[in-house]
Amino acid sequence: MNNPPRATTVATETATAGPIDAFRDTHGLFTMVAVDQRGSLRHMLSTGRQHSATDDQLTDFKAAVIDAVSGTASGVLLDRDFGLSAAQRSQCPVILAADVLSASQPGGPVDVALLDDDVTAETVHRFGAAALKFLLPWHPDRRHEAVDLAHEFMAHCKDLGLPGVLEGVVRPREGSSASPEGFAEALVTAAADLAETEPDLYKTEVVYTSHDDHDLATATSRAITDTLSCPWVVLSSGVSAAHFPAAAAAAAQGGASGFLAGRAVWSEATTAEDPVGYLRAHAAPNLQAITDRVRAAS
């Protein structure tokens, strides 16, 4: 499955520019930051501390992330629950999460998603959102359910007149998908299934735990590129912050149009004595380091 050079792919996407292209940077790439975490962020901010993080602390943390990166990021992803203050101060376009997420097993990974009925036209206006996002857990034994839910999300986006960012994640990682090669195959199959719902931007995971996975990550990305008719980006969850710049670059070599990264940009701030000070000093450089690697690989 040979792809055209990345420059050709970018040119093709630009020639058919649509609303989602408002989230590209000046190089034509998506260099975006995700801060839509809810329960997982509360857990991160509470770890090692005497008391659980409050709602106000989540709200303030998200706003601090946006203050630190919105001059560098091409877009930001926020949630309805704790992201309004951050959205109102963002200097770049906002994607609003339209998912209600939970885990079927206490303490387990997110593997259940529902469409958030409270993401209405009024909510979109209040956040100034220019796109919606839906995280969709994909399981090989429930493929039709995932496609139906993706269709529901994209129909909701159409009703609101907004582009849809569909995030396909393989859940759970078990059985044949537990190995890197099996995980890669599942990612490609999920992308092929969800492509029929015609998202405006697709977001997915990248196979990368060390430099040894570079070739597999690039080959997987080529296969995902071949199966999609829209641009796509990688997320940083599941990849260490140290490895993510290389992982995103490997994906870009295979045709990914950038990234929508969260933890790789700001996770270390959650355990810092002064989270806001850490974000001011490190979040934008972390983001720029990822962006530089992706630009060099594209």
TrEMBL record:
Protein origin, superkingdom: Bacteria
Keywords of the record: Lyase
Pfam families assigned: DeoC (PF01791)
Family annotation (InterPro entries): Aldolase_TIM (IPR013785), DeoC/FbaB/LacD_aldolase (IPR002915), LacD_aldolase (IPR050552)
Protein name: Aldolase
BP GO terms, sorted: 6-sulfoquinovose(1-) catabolic process
Family indicated by similarity: Belongs to the aldolase LacD family.
Coiled-coil residue spans: none
UniProt entry tagged with the keyword Magnesium: no
SMART domains linked: DeoC
GO molecular function: 6-deoxy-6-sulfofructose-1-phosphate aldolase activity
UniProt KW Lyase keyword: yes
